[in-house]
Amino acid sequence: MGSGKTSVAIELSKQTSKPFIDLDNLIEKSEKMTIKTIFDKYGEVYFRKKERFYLENIINSNNYSIVSLGGGTPCYSDNMKLLQSRENVYTFFLKVSPKNVSERLFIERKKRPLISHIDSFKSMEKFISKHLFERMPYYSKSTHQIDTNDKSISEIVKNILALLT
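^ that's the sequence the OP posted. Answer follows.
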């Protein structure tokens, strides 16, 4: 969350002429409600089941595309194992410091169900640090890990393209 996944994926899509899919947007469009509404109305377990369903659909479609996953996607329902099971699927962990993520997310926290309750920057940084620590075993299984601190979107995309060639 807040690592720049969507911005990087959009730019990567433009440069490769591959379709871009934002998993969260796909879920919202298909379910005809926001992620926040899904969480509020049905809870996180329901959301994670839907997330897995749509991820499987994307992967099974065999269409080459650039997909931006939610920050929690690799951590639930053996999603990382699913992604790793396909030889034509490459995953990228965009590593960013808790401080940088907190700076990005604090302003827009009301739009994000998992952090909407956080009321101070210090609490945000603590929350992000804890989540990164908990999720690191999943993120570290990515095909590639890229340090994105102090890098522009175009630099990150250039780095990804170099890894893919």
